[in-house]
Design brief:
4-stranded antiparallel beta sheet, 9% helix, mainly beta, globular, 2 helices, Methylamine Dehydrogenase, Chain H
Amino acid sequence: MFLSNLFLSNFLSLITAYKGRMKITHLFFITTILMMLLLSGCFTEPATKTIEHTDNALSINLSHNGEFVLIAHSQGHVELRQTKNNDVIAQWQHDDSPKAGVIAADFSKNNEFIVTAEQGTLALFSLKEKKVLYFWSLDDIRDIKLSSDGEYALVSSRDKSGEYPLYRIVYFHLRTGGIKYGFYHDDIISSVALSADGRYALSGSDDTKARLWDLKTGELKFTWPHFSKVAKVQLSPDGQYAMTNSASEGIYIWDTDTGKQIRRLNKIRATVASAEFSANSRQIVTGYSREEIILWDIKSGAKLMTWKPKRRYIWQSSLANVTALAFKDKNTIISETSRGIMQFWTIPEN
C-alpha cells in the first residue's frame, strides 16, 4: 500500500510539473487512465496469485475450503478445476438442449459431492467416482445448497402444478428423490443457505423477508422483515449466526437462538453477490457487484480489510460481480468474479 501511495504521489507531481507543456486533451487522457487504474484496484493490497478463466461463464462456484472451482460454461457443460494449479479434473453436462446451462451449484463440506442445477434439473456428482450419480427434475430452480454430507439439497424452486405458482424451497433427499420438507414464501426465493451442522435452513425472498427454518422439526423459527428484496443470505458453520442482505439496507447479522439482530455491518446501499463465514464463525467476507471484497469481524462489526479484484480489461464499462468466495485457510481468501478471474488474498493478522 505504501508503494502504491508513493507511486500516486509521484505521478501527480509529474503531471503538475509538466501541465504547462501538455494539451488539455493529453491531461484529460492521462487523468482518465489514472482513474481507471484506481478503480481496477491497483492501489489496494495486491492479490498474491491471479488465474484467469473464461469470461463467458454462466456461474462460478468455489468449494468451501477453496480447493476446487466449478465453472459453468455457456455451451452447457461444467468444468471442475483445482485452484492450486488450475488443472481440469472433470467435466459433465445435464443435457444437450440449447437452453442448457448450470445456473447454481454447491459443494459438500467434505468435498465428496457437488450438486449442479439448471432451471429444470439438478444433478449429484461424485468427486471420488468422477461421475454423475443421479439426475432429478424440479420446476424453475433459482438457488441450491448441499448438506455437509451430500445427502440433502436445499432447492429454491417454483411449483407450477396448481392454478397459481407456489414459491418454495424443498429439502430434497438426493438418493431417494423424496422431499422431506417444503418451505414457502410469497414471492421468488432468490437465495438459500444451510448451516454446516445441519440444524438450520435460511431463505431470502423478493417478498422482503428472510426466514430461518428448523431442519429437525420442519418448523419456521424466525421471520426477519426487510424494506426491500432480500438478495443474499448465509449461515455460519456453527449455526449461530445468520446473514441477510437487501440492497437498500446493507448487511444484518442475526442470532439464530434468539432471533435478535446483533450487528449491522454497514449502511451502504449495496447488493451482496457472495458471502462466506470463516470456519470458526468469527469473520465473514462479502463480495459485491461493484468489484469489491470486504472482510468483517462479527463480534466488533469492524471492517478488517477491503480488496479490489482485477478487471479483465481496465477500459470495460460494466463491473463484474464477485460471484464466489472461500476461506482456503485462516490466512487466505479466494475470490472469483463473473469475468472469470480467480485471485488469492492474504488475511491480515489480528
